[in-house]
Structure formats: C-alpha cells, structure tokens
Sequence to fold (68 residues):
Amino acid sequence: MRPSPPEWLIERGLQKTTIVAVHVGGCWTVRKSSRCIEVSQAQALHALRQQVPACTRCRPDSALGFLA
Ligand SMILES: [Zn+2]
Fold:
C-alpha cells in the first residue's frame, strides 16, 4: 500500500512564519519544495480566508469550493 498523498499543502515564504500560497496536495509546482507543509482541509480553508493566495496552477480554491 502506498501512503496517500497529502490533500492540501501550504507554501511558506523564506521566513517560515509567512504563508505565501495554498496548494492542492501533489501540486507539481511545489512537489520538490521543502517550504511546503501538509495541512488539513480546514487549515487550507482557513488560510484562504486569511487572504492567502490560492495557487493559480492547481486552484485549491475551486477544489475547496471557496469562492472569494
Ligand atoms: Zn499549486
């Protein structure tokens, strides 16, 4: 059995306290980034509500049903 991929990812800035984007888990733009952390759906939604931009490649906002 393979471990399931994370459902959502949060990409942090150079300063780890800064969140720069929200991604769907497995988004190819950040797959190799060590700055991404796995988060729950609730945490991903929370970040979007805090004006964290959604990745324009994987569109986590539409995947979450989040319409600004
Ligand atoms: Zn993405």
